[in-house]
Specification:
Elements: H1 4-75
Length: 76
Amino acid sequence: MADPENHTLRLLRELDRKSDALQAEVREGYESVNDRLKNLQQAMIGESVLGRYTVAEVEERSDKIEQRLSTLEKKR
C-alpha cells in the first residue's frame, strides 16, 4: 500500500498544477474582458466626438439661417 504521506504530497502537487491552470484561465478571461472594455470606451469616445462635431455643425448652420432670415425680415 502507498505511503499516506506520499499520497498527500501527490495530491497537493496535482492541486497546485490545477490551481496554476485555473489562474491562467482567469487571467486570460480578465485580459479579454479588459480589452473589450477598452475597445468599447474608444468607440464611445469616438462617437461622442463625432456627435459633438455634428451638433456644432448643425448649430452653425442654424445660426447662419437665422441671420439670413433676420436680414430678409429687415428688408421688408
